[in-house]
Amino acid sequence: MLCYVLAPISRTGNHLDTEIWLVNTDDVTTSHRATTDTATESRPRWSADSGTLFFLSDCADRSTSQVHRLALADGTADPVTNWGAGIIDHLPLADLTMVALLAEDELTEQDAHRIRDRDDAIVVGEREPRARLRLLDLRTGLVTTPDVFGDRHVVELRQRPDGGPLAVLTRASSDKDYGPRTGQLHLFDLRTGTATDFGAVEAEAHSLAWWPGEDGWHLAHLALTPPVLQAGTAVFDLAVDSRTVRNRTSDLPMCPTELHQTDADPLVVFADGLNTTLARLDPTGPTTLSQHTGCLDDLSTTPAGDTIAALTSTRYQPANVHIGPATGPLRRLTNTRPELDAIALGAQQPLNHRAADGLDLDGLLVLPVGSSAADGPFPLVTIVHGGPYDRYADRFQLSWVPSAQWLAAAGYAVFLPNPRGGKGHGHQFAASVAGRIGQEEWTDIQTGIDLLIAEGVADPDRLGIAGGSHGGFMSAWAVGQTDRFRAALVVAGVIDWGMLTATGEYGLFEAALGGSTGWSGIGPHPHDAVSPISFAGRVRTPVLLLHGAEDTNVPLGQSVYFHRALRHFGVEHEFVIYPREGHSIRERNHQLDVLRRTRAWFDRWLQS
Prior knowledge:
Layout: E1 2-6, E2 19-24, E3 27-33, E4 41-46, E5 52-57, E6 66-71, E7 77-79, E8 89-92, E9 98-104, H1 109-116, E10 131-137, E11 143-144, E12 153-159, E13 166-171, E14 184-189, E15 194-200, E16 206-213, E17 216-224, E18 233-239, E19 244-247, E20 255-260, E21 267-272, E22 275-280, E23 287-292, E24 296-301, E25 307-314, E26 317-325, E27 331-332, E28 348-354, E29 360-366, E30 378-384, H2 404-408, E31 413-418, H3 427-431, H4 440-454, E32 458-468, H5 470-481, E33 487-491, H6 497-503, H7 507-514, E34 543-548, H8 557-568, E35 573-578, H9 588-606
Parallel strand pairs: 30-31, 30-32, 32-33, 33-34, 34-35
Antiparallel strand pairs: 1-2, 2-3, 4-5, 5-6, 6-7, 8-9, 9-10, 10-11, 12-13, 13-14, 14-15, 16-17, 17-18, 18-19, 20-21, 21-22, 22-23, 24-25, 25-26, 26-27, 28-29, 29-31
Helix pairs in contact: 6-7
């Protein structure tokens, strides 16, 4: 039996209603919903004996999730927690009577009075929310909180496969800027209720995975590669007895994206250029097991690690659940978007080229629907991915953001570049943009555009550029460096790196990209030289600015800043703010507006 979560692309109300489904892997026609509740259902976890499914649901009190238990024998689901603050995560333990929980403290009576009386001034550093380890006894329903880890914020748990101790990752706080750089690793003994500290881990540590080696137990995890925060993710492997740590992926030309525990050696998913590699982390490895076109995401595995399930997509099919041996091939179990089968799509092909300094680069080209490259030149829109530690994989390119197939349906060729700074080509490739954003990565993009012009695919007089988040930065940067683009789209883009360091969720990470902070001295600062706002006086290209009003990752002030500068210099532009939206646009009407408005914008400037 396999379980998966089905979620809509957008929401129409205040909540994103999701569904948990069960499918018999031997007979997919027997798939069915686990419950009939209207709720946000998430984080399904099997019990150790695979007879019970635990999951989170907020069906009783929307936005407050509790652990529910579904017994496969009779198909009934019932809540097993009623924790006032809600449950963040859960882990069924080898002892079938126990479940480990992550949950914040419940409100005290004093706190409730303060909220009711509006005596709720926020003192930074005081009464900050902390997720704590808690233990649920299924026999009694009692939740206890072990007195361990002090006031640290618990972020992840993983039990040793033999039913031994819990590996626990904690941070000094839940602050998204400060906390991830203060990670520590601990072992918690369930029998004695005591903890052993193993010290600091690298920034953004996650994905704990135990494995048995000849020298005893090992504990691996993913984290950012030191010393630069923008250097991509690596697999760090701790030999528990000797407490020695090794970076197991430092010299590889690909980047680990997922790490999964089995009863033996963990499985590692790697971004490998435009495609994906699945490997086993053994003493001599990682050892490749299989390779997959495009992306392989959200991997799940049997305890033995011999069978896997994952989300994969092809160039012309959206992501669906696939299952099969770890060595491949995989077969599809779901078909969640059958309505797309009848829609004509543009031809998609890998694009390999070289940077100005000779570095090998890749990306994707999507041609207008019904056209071949020989039918060019076409108006070309270049869409830059976010991150910058992200990538375009050779998978289905249709989403709520202005995407390649959405524009290809309107007659555009679309270039999806993978400039340096992204994932898929090893740590050095990712680290090369730290403090140098907008430099070589910008010329990487331009060389791809120049190649498409030289090959007759792109019309040099009808070029557009677009992107969101870091891609939005690149779009705003581009129009301050050149007049070659006739239109630009900037979605939640970074306009001033100093301001983002001061106000964004991940300030220190942004400082690593921009090269400095506003408190680095009087200035001028290195980040000024790589901020689009510094070049606003040069912009002549019409710009469409889109931003969510509640964005805390790249706050709305970034777009306000650019809007005021463009208005000051008399640049043609349009500025749209989406209420209630964060860094991603989630409401259906807003998503439709983004799609229609951006295509109309490029039609206005590139199709005339």
